[in-house]
Amino acid sequence: MDNQEVVFTLNEELVRVYADPAESLLTVLRDKLGLFGTKVGCGRGECGACTVLLDDQPVNSCLIPFGKVEGRRIETIENLSRGEEYHPIQKAFVEKGAVQCGFCSPGMIMSAHALLKTNPQPSLQEIKTAISGNLCRCTGYKQIEEAIASAAEKKSRR
User: Fold this and answer.
1) What is the pLDDT of residue 158?
2) Cα(77)–Cα(92) distance, rounded to whole angstroms?
3) Residues 106 and 64 in one domain
4) Would you call 99 helix, strand, or coil by DSSP?
């Protein structure tokens, strides 16, 4: 298919990108925009490594045709930290040892970010549900769940 212009908000900035509308959002983010924080995992929507927020909802970017993001808001892991300052969720992942190989971390963190935006004090079950679409082969999930709970607790104390 021919490339077309797609205009959308990416990490709080309006952007225009020319690409094949049938290409995946994941491919465009990485290959056209150089945002490598979103990982290429299974390519079938099963692992969650490519999770980004689309209009504040976590989605597998490998399953989203690029043409479907016209006029929408996309947030990637690159938007969370500010220079050298990590986002509280990122800090909690480091503090709780929730980062092993790091491959799943961006997707997990984006799923956690979406949860905490809408539910600042989630239960353990709500945390488990929020990250249920993200696979991790290293940590066993306990540290990840603790990190998300810790980030929520610190957020509520502010």
Assistant:
1) 58
2) 15
3) no
4) coil
pTM, entire model: 0.94
| Contact of 16 with 6, CB cutoff 8 Å | yes
Give the strand pairing for 57-60 and 13-19: unpaired
Determine the Cα–Cα distance for residues 77 and 58; give it in Å rounded to an integer. 12
Angle among Cα 120, 109, 130 to the nearest 5 degrees reads 60
Question: Would you list the DSSP string of 60-98?
Answer: EGGGSBGGGGTT-EEE-GGGT-BTTB--HHHHHHHHTT-
- Contact between 83 and 38 under an 8 Å Cβ cutoff? The reply is no
Q: Same domain, yes or no, for 153 and 92? A: yes
Q: Check whether residue 99 and residue 61 sit in a common domain.
A: no
DSSP bridge pairs for 53: 58, 75
pLDDT band at 84 (very low <50, low <70, confident <90, very high): confident
